[in-house]
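Whiteboard transcription, Tuesday session. T.W. wrote the structure tokens on the left side:
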């Protein structure tokens, strides 16, 4: 394994979070995210080669630092540590495989700054590349504490983008990837239970906390434009309303309802607004000056 980049996200309210990027062959590369501590030789390489940029989001400054390196590691070598604090209690591992057919991402122009070795359109489920015995063992670690995926595939689905619908990922006008998650939202489905819709707010939906909000998609025509599947929201300027609940994974706090309006415009922009003073959808709700516009 050749490690070619070490990065870190730095913010005012959380500890430094490192990521390690590596190549396995010409087609296959991978990453470890949410690394809380690098081993000593990687830390020295990172400090000696890092360059940083700072982005202001609201009232806070966030920094992204990256170091280009070139170091080979044999299997079994320790790279660092994960976990150990309340903010970082998991380790993310993933792979990119350029030998597969690329996923159909709608907003390809957003991803122009990606590393050529790790292009999001070639994302695969990392544990699929292990032996059947090891894959079965690794599947037991998927989840969050006692919460495990309820639907297949265990890795979750990757690309939800559907052109000319609301489903998928949306960005602020000038956002690029990689970049702060605060510059985007996702209208997708839970990676723990794909029967649950998810509105994932990076932070730009006004007055709504950066978090995920769950709802059960309705299939009854009597429900009209309430909790409709994102794939069925078309670019006709209709206003759709969602009664969503703050939650994690497949567990929602149904005592607190967040009413969220969205409309897909004929120019394929998306208008969205959190109605802070509403507890359920009704015909009188409409957009105000608090709405936010997102783009593909």
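and on the right, the sequence the group agreed on:
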């Amino acid at each position: 394994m050749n490690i070619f980049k070490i990065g870190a996200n730095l913010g005012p309210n959380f500890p430094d979070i490192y990521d390690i990027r590596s190549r396995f062959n010409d087609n296959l590369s991978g990453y470890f995210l949410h690394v809380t501590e690098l081993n000593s030789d990687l830390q020295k390489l990172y400090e000696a080669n890092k360059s940083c940029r700072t982005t202001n989001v609201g009232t806070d400054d966030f920094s992204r630092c990256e170091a280009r390196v070139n170091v080979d590691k044999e299997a079994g070598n320790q790279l660092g540590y994960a976990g150990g604090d309340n903010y970082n209690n998991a380790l993310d591992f993933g792979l990119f495989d350029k030998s597969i057919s690329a996923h159909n991402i709608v907003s390809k122009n957003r991803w122009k700054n990606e590393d050529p070795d790790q292009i999001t359109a070639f994302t695969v489920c990392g544990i699929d590349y292990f032996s059947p015995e090891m894959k079965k063992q690794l599947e037991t670690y998927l989840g969050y504490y006692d919460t495990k995926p309820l639907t297949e595939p265990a890795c979750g689905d990757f690309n939800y983008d559907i052109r000319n619908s609301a489903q998928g990922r949306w960005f602020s006008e000038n956002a690029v990837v990689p970049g702060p998650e605060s510059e985007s939202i996702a209208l997708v489905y839970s990676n723990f239970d794909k029967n649950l819709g998810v509105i994932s707010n990076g932070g730009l939906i006004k007055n709504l906390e950066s978090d995920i909000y769950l709802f059960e998609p309705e299939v009854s025509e009597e429900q009209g434009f309430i909790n409709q599947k994102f794939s069925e929201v078309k670019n006709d300027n209709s206003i759709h309303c969602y009664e969503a609940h703050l939650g994690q994974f497949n567990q929602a706090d149904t005592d607190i309802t967040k009413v969220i309006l969205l409309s897909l415009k004929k120019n394929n922009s998306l208008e969205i607004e959190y109605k802070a003073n509403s507890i359920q959808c009704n015909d009188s709700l409409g957009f105000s000056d608090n709405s936010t516009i997102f783009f593909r």
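Someone added at the bottom: The longest helix spans residues 40-49.
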